[in-house]
Amino acid sequence: METAEDGRLRGPKSSERRRRGCCRPRHPLGERRSGPRYSLLAEIGRGSYGVVYEAVARRTGARVAVKKIRCDAPENVELALAEFWALTSLKRRHRNVVQFEECVLQCNGLAQRMSHGNKSSQLYLRLVETSLKGERILGYPEEACYLWFVMEFCEGGDLNQYVLSRKPDPVTNKSFMLQLTSAIAFLHKNHIVHRDLKPDNILITERSGSPVLKVADFGLSKVCAGLTSHSRECSEGGGMENKMVNLNKYWLSSACGSDFYMAPEVWEGHYTAKADIFALGIIMWAMIERITFIDADSKKELLGTYIKQGSEIVPVGEALLENPKMELHIPQKRRTSMSDGIKQLLKDMLAANPQDRPDAFELETRMDQVTCAA
Ligand SMILES: Nc1ncnc2c1ncn2[C@@H]1O[C@H](COP(=O)(O)OP(=O)(O)O)[C@@H](O)[C@H]1O
Ligand SMILES: [Mg+2]
Question: Looking at ligand 1, which atom is closest to the CA of residue 98?
């Protein structure tokens, strides 16, 4: 594996409420050291706390994506562990959730495959300690530690790039809505709240011909502990409604996410899994109507709906927090054709009161109905 420059803090506009760490590069970009398992081909993404590379597994020749996270800053470790715990807590695959292959911790010249909750691994325990204590306790100062996440490679870019580089297509929109709903229902059934759903974190593969969405970036996700004993039962379809109710009563308090997709209650810092439903509502509404804004930091055009207040654009969740009675004009553009069923479903997903939103299980049923009828 190679050493290269590392994470970058996201700008304030589209940023997470909870801070992601920032590290200065230790090695100049381009310095390389080869590891035995994967060959890195090219940098494909650079996020707030890591660099993502396209790579090839040397043994099988399979293309993979490898996310490298530098572990000296506790914030980085916290996010890396959140991602690791969420992805390893999934006992089954889902077609619309990015497939995790393995996680390797590289430290002091050693590379060790990480396994969840491995109490016999000193390195794993020290990672947890780093995150809990909020101070650097890993590695020698002169050699940084890295976590390498290996996952399936999504060659089709993200949802912004995919949608905005093509003509509007109602059939693709419907398929994407069903795929996203299915992914979130799967995550919620497995007691994972994603908390950072946005088009940049929805990746695409077209290996099978038609585009397949993959929900990615679990760095802000939360595995709702205490409910996990039911997870096998849930994933096998037993007693699902009760488990959904449980998850939707599991209160979270760290206000995180990205402004334009954050539900009103997330702005207040007291929310449940229903926050993911709100984010999906924003993404789907923007996708159908191609509503975009320009990100203040990256200057990229991003899919996302907002409210206009004079010359300002305000995230829908923030505007609803100020005025919960505000009526959303869905569709926003006169020329958009949208069935009454989809209109109502989007309005319900974006209800100011989370209790008025469908949970992921109800959403699956209703999405099937409205996309069949449309
Ligand atoms: N599995 C993957 N396949 C292809 N590209 C990826 C993959 N994972 C991440 N990327 C690219 O890297 C970017 C950053 O990765 P992400 O997991 O979202 O980290 P961050 O938390 O830093 O945003 C993504 O927006 C995407 O462009
Ligand atoms: Mg991301």
Answer: 1
Number of domain units in the chain: 2
Q: How far apart are CA 224 and CA 275, in angstroms?
A: 14
CATH code where residue 265 lies: 1.10.510.10
Binned at pLDDT 50, 70 and 90, residue 109 comes out as: confident
The answer to whether residue 102 is domain-embedded is yes
Pocket of ligand 1 (CB under 6 A): 44-45, 47-50, 52, 65, 67, 98, 151-154, 158, 200-201, 203, 216-217, 219
Which CATH number goes with the domain that contains 122?
3.30.200.20
Whether 346 and 281 have beta carbons less than 8 Å apart is answered as yes
For 336-356, what is the mean pLDDT?
96
Q: Looking at 206-262, which runs of residues are DSSP E strands? A: 212-215, 222-223
Average pLDDT over all residues of the chain: 83
6 classed as catalytic: no
Span 248-259, mean pLDDT? Answer: 87
What's this model's pTM, rounded to 2 decimal places? 0.86
Selected catalytic residue, list 6, 72, 158, 196: 196
Phi-psi category of 169—alpha, beta or left, where left has phi over 0 and alpha has psi -120 to 50? Answer: beta
In angstroms, what is the span from residue 87 Cα to ligand 2's centroid?
15
Q: Provide the pLDDT confidence category of residue 106 given band limits of 50, 70 and 90.
A: confident
- Residue 366 structural domain: 157-221+246-373
